[in-house]
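Quick one:
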Amino acid sequence: MTRHPGDPASPQPDRVSCSRCGTSTTDPGLTWMSERDARRGPVWFCDRCARTHLRSIEAKLEQEYW
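Output:
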């Protein structure tokens, strides 16, 4: 049986939230960044926070030092 996005029987997509600013969405798209944290599991950053902290992310600094 095929399920369509508007079908109430379809499972709801998971919401993801930016771990810096709290912005949330059901479709993070290509501009959002995700990383796997050993303690917290998957961590998401919105496009705005990812651009703002790109240098720190690339340097692999811990998030508390951003």
